[in-house]
Amino acid sequence: MLLDDRKKRILEAIIEEYNNTAEPVGSTKIANDYNLGFSPATIRNEMASLEELGYLEQPHTSAGRVPSSKGYRLYIDNIMKEKNLTAKEKAVIDEILQNDITKIENLIHEATNILSRLTNYASIAMGPEIENCSVEEIKLVKIGNNRLMIVILADNGIIKESLVNYDGVIPEENIEIFNNFLNYKLKGRNFREIYENINSYVENELYNISNNIVPLMVEINNLLVDGNSKVYMEGATNMLALPELKKVDTLKNFLNIIETKDAIKELMKSGYDGNINVYIGQETAFDDLKDFTIITYKQSLNDKEVGTIGIIGPKRMDYKKVIPTIKYLGEAIQQKINQGGKKDVRDDGEE
After folding, report:
1. Are 84 and 21 contacting, i.e. CB atoms less than 8 angstroms apart?
2. 175 and 201, same domain (yes or no)
3. Coil, strand or helix: which one is 26?
4. Contact partners, residue 256, CB within 8 Å, separation at least 6
5. In the chain, which residues have pLDDT < 70?
6. Same domain flag for 72 and 221
7. In this predicted model, what pLDDT tens digit does every residue of 137-194 receive, in sequence order?
8. How far apart are CA 345 and CA 28, in angstroms?
9. Mean pLDDT across the chain, nearest whole number?
10. Number of helices and strands (H, E) in the chain?
11. What contacts 115, CB < 8 A, 6 or more positions away?
């Protein structure tokens, strides 16, 4: 059912009042403070109608009402007018992103610090899942006489790198042979496929050249199998000061969310690239999230996902401020990824 303008204005006022006070909202408060031009009786009748339609809830026996997940959804999608970021807030984001952060995963991680500072909620970020990526290039770089750096560049711009230490000197000709052969055999292949078939692809043939290949292949295997996305979180303590978390059950749910991160991972994998994705309370399949909202922004490079940034906060959130903040940061990161992504990553590995 579409709401008429009067219901939308009253719902907006209730949400803004509840966001400010965390207390159930009554009709008299709205009539006195929001200059809507409606009497308390009219507002009361409309509030009853909004509750019947599922946009408001009445906690316990309180005379006041609070927004439901459905009410917040309507507010975000059809009523809310986003606030503009201040010049100072934009400067904070722009200044940090001017730093020489060449690895995409580090860039995604850095976003958590920015979001936590600007929103006062718990910020979250998830690095890329790489086990479904393919190898674009492998580089072996000699460091001194007895160390090799392995750099694996994936087709989504992500790199994996590690050092291998040897007891003796590594012949230069071995390094060149290994480098050329690894690229010939592995370029374009899926990470998981390589891990599961590494012996048949490489080791048996190269072992005939030199046993130096053994520790090298062990380390490549370690890099390839470590494909799970990492979830970063900052500012979880910000949440502990919120009135919602004074309730024991809500606090337990939040602690479970940040401990397991299962719900966060699942939601951060969903949604669309380059768009704000908002998951409100009971909209999700996770009972622990019934009192919370997760807002995310997905990043991509060459049509492949490279990470997700976002925040977790109470349903009673300043969406007008938080959503444009995440959007501005997400777009700024995406621009940096597009401009420097693969070139920066590759140069970083060659140093």
Report:
1. no
2. yes
3. coil
4. 288
5. 1, 62, 99-103, 129-132, 156-157, 201-211, 225-229, 340-351
6. no
7. 999 988 888 888 888 888 766 777 888 888 888 788 888 888 888 898 889 888 878 8
8. 59
9. 84
10. 14, 10
11. 121, 123, 234, 235, 309, 310, 311, 325, 326, 329
Work out whether the CA dihedral 198, 201, 204, 208 comes out positive or negative.
negative
Contacts (Cβ under 8 Å, ≥6 apart) of 100: none
* Residue after which a domain boundary falls, among 176, 203, 225: 225
For residue 162, the SS3 value is: strand
Residues 13, 65 within the same domain? yes
Concatenated DSSP letters of 40-105:
HHHHHHHHHHHHHTTSEE--TT-SSBEE-HHHHHHIIIII--PPPPPHHHHHHHHHHHTS---SHH
User: Does residue 350 form part of some domain?
Assistant: no
56: CATH: 1.10.10.10
List the structure tokens of 141.
Answer: 């770089």
Query: 286 and 305: one domain?
Result: yes
Give the separation between CA 188 and CA 137, rounded to whole angstroms.
Answer: 8
> Is residue 34 in a domain?
yes
Instruction: Report the C-alpha gap between 212 and 165 in whole angstroms.
Output: 10
CA nearest to 223, candidates 164, 160, 156, 163:
160
Q: How far is CA 342 from the centre of its chain?
A: 21
Helices (H), 98-161: 104-119
Name the pairing type of β-strands 135-143 and 122-126: unpaired
**Alpha helices, H only, 226-318:** 236-239, 248-260, 262-269
**pLDDT tens-digit readout, 97-109:** 776 555 677 777 7
Q: 313 and 121 in contact (C-beta within 8 Å)?
A: yes
AA letter at 131: E
Burial of 144 (C-beta count, 10 Å sphere; 0-12/13-18/19+): exposed
pTM score, two decimals? 0.76
Beta-bridge partner residues of 312 = 122, 294
- Total domains in the fold of the chain: 3
User: Domain of 104: which CATH number?
Assistant: 3.30.450.40
Minimal CA–CA distance to 21: which of 61, 75, 53, 64? Answer: 64
- Domain of 149 in residue numbering reads as 135-225
